[in-house]
Amino acid sequence: MSSIILLISAWTAIRMVYWLSHTASLYGVFMFILPLLLLPLLASSYAEVNYEGIKVLSTILPTCKRVALFQYLYGQPIQMTVYGHAVTYGTIGTVVAGILAAFASKILLQELSDL
Asked: How distant, in Å, are the alpha carbons of 26, 50, 107, 110 from that of 2?
């Protein structure tokens, strides 16, 4: 998963740097947007696993033998991580919003420089 995120980030960064000296075409915008649309689709499985992992703790029947298990799960929750950070739906939205904000600010700066 980390390699896919790195590949998509590198691809979008290359497209954004390319647009610094060239005008954006419809095909170029499509090449920029398509990987960004695929990223939440690919990362949603991680987010779903983390969501279900949080719910596991509340479904375990508490007994005296399971106290150690509870203490372990509170310290180490069941979750899948990328670069040490849990992938949730909120983090996916934050990343997509950040990339779109960078893209929009580039367009805004380009329009302001043309004035």
From this structure: 29, 16, 29, 32
pTM: 0.44
pLDDT at 31 over 70: yes
How many C-beta atoms surround the C-beta of residue 79 within 10 A?
17
- Residue located via tokens 């290359």: 14
Q: Which residue, chain included where needed, has tokens 């950070």?
A: 85
Q: Each residue of 75-94: pLDDT tens digit?
A: 777 777 777 777 777 777 88
Backbone angles phi, psi at 60, to 5 degrees: -80, 130
